[in-house]
Amino acid sequence: MAEAITGWPDDVYTELDAAGIRQVSYVPDAGHSRLIQRCRSNRAMRTVSLTTEEEGVAMGLGAWLGGVRHVLLLQSSGVGNTINMLAAPIEMRVPLLMLVTMRGEWAEFNPWQLPMGQGTRAALESVGTLVYAVDRADEIAETVAAAARIAFNTGRVVAVLIGQRAIGAKTWNK
Amino acid sequence: MTPEKAAKKNPVRARKLLRRELVEAILARRGDALVVTGLGTTCYDVFSVGDNPLNFYNWAGMGGAAMVALGLALAQPKRRVLCITGDGEMLMGLGSLATIACEKPKNLSIVVMDNEHYVETGMQGTHTGRGVDLAAMAKGAGFAIATNVTNEVAFRRALSLIHGNAGPVFVNVKVSPAQPPMTLPMRDGPYIRSRFRDALLGPEIAHPTMVPSAT
């Protein structure tokens, strides 16, 4: 990773906690590393590592049926895996919050990340997900707070796309 | 091989268990358990023999039933959660066996009605008819309780595991691909959601009212 990550993961964690999130599922990503660590250290949050991203969509639906708020942490490459599963929460008006760290855009070095990275927003919107993209580190936490509010108050699936400009692009070859 | 040919070749396998009767037997003992169905036939079975507000009828997201059940089981640790799904649906979500085995929810039972066919789409064979053993895969993932059931006696024994206090439980039941008459459940997603949440959480939580602040 480049060194761009600063305090925003801690601020995002604070917002998730304040929004009453009690289940956190994730497919690990470097950009989510600090946030996962913070959630794991909160005993009131159940953190679940997934084998693939669509598991988290189904799990979030079950959590809501059971009265618990869920967040799914994933990388943009995993968004493609979630599309068919999103039909259930979207058609049921079940709220789900997804925090997506981006690859395949700003200063990307790996060309294989481009197709899914460039298609992330279109793929999510094609099935009815509300999408908020954020490229400035100081706007990430407030965007997550707003996304949580609209998701849980209006019964919508909402994705926040956290850009590489904010995270810091992976730089193995400068 | 068609089920008819298989029956001629091996008469013991011809006396297959009937899915509908098994689902009825499971639901008769459900108590206050929460039920998550798979897609297609298991969804219709559960509705046909045991409609209940605490049933989640799954109409989309093939491969997700076990994970819906996990989310629910972790959200409601004091309630038994039963996932009743089919072999085709389970095959599409095999990774979830690994995830569930790692989380070890004591209150979750997964029951696969394994008819070795995709009945909905024209009776194409699934991998379980070609040697794939879902219970062995669950065991390999780390389920402490994972078993195959092929006859009535074993099914009766499995019932106490399904409704027990230990878990997670994985029971794969070999059943006939015969399709009994069925009734389709309601399809309105928000209704299925709200009916379930009202019954489980109460209307105050499911549909909170609000007094606006004076400002």
What keyword list fits this structure?
heterodimer, A: 174 residues, alpha/beta, Rossmann fold, 6-stranded parallel sheet, globular, B: 215 residues, two-stranded antiparallel ribbon, 11 helices, 8 strands
Biggest β-sheet: strands ordered side by side in the sheet of chain A: 2-1-3-4-6-5
Mean pLDDT of chain A: 95
Q: Main β-sheet of chain A, in a few words?
A: 6 strands, parallel
| Top-tier CATH class of chain B | Alpha Beta
CATH topology of chain A: Rossmann fold
CATH architecture of chain A: 3-Layer(aba) Sandwich
Q: Please give the share of residues in helix of chain A.
A: 40-55%
CATH topology of chain B: Rossmann fold
How much of the sequence of chain A is in beta strands? Answer: 15-25%
Mind telling me the CATH superfamily name of chain A? Answer: Thiamin diphosphate (ThDP)-binding fold, Pyr/PP domains
How much helicity do the residues of chain B have?
A: 40-55%
Which sequence of SSEs, written as H and E, runs from N to C of chain A? HEHEHEHHEHEHEH
Number of helices of chain B: 11
In DSSP terms (H or I, runs of 4 or more residues), the helix count of chain A works out at: 8
Radius of gyration of chain B: 18 Å
What is the molecular shape of chain B? globular
Poorly predicted residue ranges of chain A = none
Largest interface: A-B, 34 and 38 residues
